[in-house]
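Per reviewer request, we include the raw input and output of the structure prediction for the construct analysed in the revised manuscript.
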Amino acid sequence: MSTTPDRWKGAFFDYATSSFADVLRRSAPHLLPHHEDLAREEGGSHSAPAVPHGTTVLALRYRDGVIMAGDRQASEGYQVASRRIDKIFKSDDLSGVGIAGAAGPAMEMARLFQTELEHYEKVEGENLSLDGKANKLGQMIRMNLPMAMQGLVVVPIFAGFDERAGVGRLFKYDVTGGRYEETDYFAQGSGGKDARDSLKKRFKRDMAKDEAVRVAIEALMDAADEDLGTGGPDLQRGIYPTVKTITRSGFGDVSDDEIRRYCEAILGERGRL
């Protein structure tokens, strides 16, 4: 006997759409992170509620694909809301999202995007192309525009390995969902400008993985030096940046032990150990 609630049966067995967001919009719109009623409940106010914000994420190309990295701190005004937040999310085996902006809506969007790609694969029987994934994320950011007008802005970075082209690619977005491809690197968030300045000095094309990981970590540390909202490595608490790799082989993690060694080496060279 089926345990699927009656209200979901028509939604899931209607294969007229390959979009999971459309399924939710028809059957349970209150589950969408950008539910329009929330904006109306705010009474038209344009002041943003005090919510944690993710700060700095970046992506850069290297020889085998793309590196994505982010600091671990979330800030709420001038206070630290969390020291251990993860900002890099796996979308599927060949792509990922780095979130910046209002932490709660950004994490919901990242999870919904992952479900969206899984739903498309099940309905269509094949994976969406990397350009299709980038466009899909842009549509989701555009749907969040009413919330962005309330101050809950979400501006992620999307990166992945393009199997057709055989290279890693990365995309940035504006608050309206506009999609722009970057050829080498990009950083987003409150420390984004400082991270981009660091990447501009250190980035080289066709870098090996070890060099690319070090460049990414140094950029986050440079951003933490200049931006109050960006958290640097904390050796005493054992808190280090998140670093992920996306290659032809899939979505991979760089271990905390490996990241710790990079951080200690960089701090030692800067005379701060």
